Amino acid sequence: MSSVEISVSNTTETRNFGSKMILIFSCMLLAGGMLWLQQEVSETQALLLLIGTLLGMTLYHAAFGFTTAWRNFIINRRGKGLRAQMLMLAVGVCLFFPALSAGELFGEEVRGFVRPLGWSVICGAFIFGIGMQLGNGCASGNLYHVGGGQIRAIPSMIGFTVGALWATKDYEWWTGLPQFAPVSLVDELGVVFAIAVNLLLFGGIVFFTRWLEKRYHGNVEKDDAGSDLSVGARLLHGPWPFVWGGIALALLNFATLALTGSPWAVAVAYPLWGAKLAMLLELELELDFWTYWLQPGREMALSEPLQYDVFSIINIGVILGALLAASLAGKFSLQWRLPWQHWIAAVLGGLMLGYGATIAFGCNIGAYFGGIVSGSLHGWLWLVAAFVGSLLGTYLRPLFALPNETTARSSC
User: Fold this and answer.
1) How far apart are CA 77 and CA 29, in angstroms?
2) What is the reported pTM?
3) For 140-176, how does the pLDDT look when each residue is reduced to its tens digit (9 = 90+)?
4) How remote is the C-alpha of 344 from its chain's centroid?
5) Is residue 241 classed as helix, strand or coil in its secondary structure?
6) How far apart are CA 181 and CA 27, in angstroms?
């Protein structure tokens, strides 16, 4: 055996050993975290950590995201990622609309995210769309990137936290701008018709992406990730087709609705993290007088420990799930070396993500995914405004030495 072969063999063995250690560590964190939450908070919080972990594993194994899927459509006219999002939403509305119409699920009260339509949503989503391209990840994407070892996502998360806290100070001004009252398609049209209208819209988007893709490439890209592996191996180690990811995310979002009474949200935890940090640093911000923190539930969240916050626990679970998935896939590695322009873009993009999501009533998960499966028109308004922002952000990327040559599975 040559020295090169010995070196490669040793490297492989080291990587496999490291993956096993990370897997054991991840499982211990999950089990320990669930046990602690069950004893200190509630069984529901423990289950939410598990749900978050499954969400993180899904996001990582399917490389399911919004940032790259949108950019891939804008630059390469490839719509595989967008079509997977439409499938996710289609499954979601079929599950959510009947439960939200009834007002209860398994005997517990449930409510969707039905928000006003106004300038705060339009401007916030537009800003968020730019930020997700500069920051190279969306709200959920940064979480699973960090879990997978991409340390470069941390500056974006820090910017997200600062931007979200900043937006809570301006929240009263933004929500005071002209806006229309919330519109629920479920209430206005009824369950069956509301589902039908949404499915037609999803189908129209799928048809358009396929038509455009065929026009530019002569074919439609296949969603066959991991097709050379057995089903069991793909489930455990990845990669997953986007279709699997879309269906899994819809089911897990529905499980979140059953446990918490509301859909999954990511960005709502960031203002709280920023506020907790400001309180820890004893910054004199007078948070108690800001309109954002005077809304029901938020003032209590400021005084309670973070382990009581539903969405913080889910976010932590997403990071843990990505760590677990990366170790199962044998792909965990710390990645932090980047050109200095990328670090600037990450922080700037993070600030825009946090600020935009907070004034727009959510991010790609809470406003787009959560809004549409709640039957709220603001979810569709958010989608349009964020896509336009993402279009601009895509063409701003080269200013920060960020490449636009992309594949559909490279990033969230």
Assistant:
1) 41
2) 0.92
3) 889 999 998 888 889 999 999 999 999 999 999 999 9
4) 22
5) coil
6) 46
